[in-house]
Amino acid sequence: MNTHLTTALDLAARGVPVLPLRVGKVPFGNCPACRGNACGGRPNMKTPGRCTCARPCHAWAAAATDPTTLTGPGWAPAWRQAGAVAYHPGGIGLTVVDLDDAHAIAWARRMLPASRTVPTTRGEHWIYQGVMPSVNGVRPGVDIKSTMSYARWLGPGTGTMAPLPDAVRALVAAKPSPVRPVTVLVPAGGGECRHRTPVFLERGIAMAEQRITGATSSVHATVYRAFLAVLSTHGRCGCLTDAHTARLFTAAQAKGESARHCADAWSNARTALGM
User: Fold this and answer.
1) H or E stretch at 111
2) pLDDT attached to residue 183
3) CA distances from 253 to 44, 115, 228 (A)
C-alpha cells in the first residue's frame, strides 16, 4: 500500500480528516468530476474554474475520515501521485501556528506559550488546542491554520499541547491597520464618510462573501469581480482593513483558491481601479 495512504488511514482511524497533496503542497479534488483538474477549479490554476459540484470539494473541504472514501476509486489516482498528506486542523479542534523561518520562531518563543512543536522544511508548526479563523500573513513569516484550512502532516511532534492562547487569537482579532494610507473624504458641510458607517461596510463585505461562496462556476472570475466591487465602493475612503480582506480571502480559499491567487486578484483589482 502507498506510504502516504497508509499514513492517511492511520490518522483517519483516529478521527483526523485527511487529504492527499501533490508535490508542491497543492491539493487534489476529491470527486470524479474534478479528477485531473477536469473542472478547472483546483487551486493555483490560472484558468477560470468551471466546477459545478454540489458542495466544496477542493483543498480543506476534501479532508475525510471515511476509509471507504480514502481508498475508493475516486481517490486512488491521487494517492498514487501524492507527495504528502495534509489534514484539517479545525476539524479536530486544533490551531496550527505556521512559523516559516528562524525570525518567526524566535518571535514565537518570546511571545507565545510553549506547545506541541512539529519541525517543518523551513521552520516549525506550533499546535494548540482550540479553533479560530485561518488567516495567512498575520505577521512576517506567520500563518494561522485552523478552520477552513489544511496543514501538512509532518508527524505527531513533541511537547505538551497547550490551550489556544489569547495572544494567538489577538493576531487576527486585534484591530488592524488600513490596507493602504488614504485621505478620508468628508462630505461638504461636515459629517462622517458614509463608507465608514459600520452597517454599510458590513453589508458590502457580507454581500461579497456570499457572492464568492455561492459561485458554482468561474470561481476565479467571480473572486476577482467580488474584490473589484468591494474596492470600487470602499477602497478609497480608508474603511477597509486587513480583517475585511482576510474575510474575503477566507471565502475565496474555501472555494479552492490559493492564497497566492487571492493576493494576485486583489492586486489586479486595485490596479484596474488605479489605486
Assistant:
1) helix 102-111
2) 34
3) 11, 27, 17
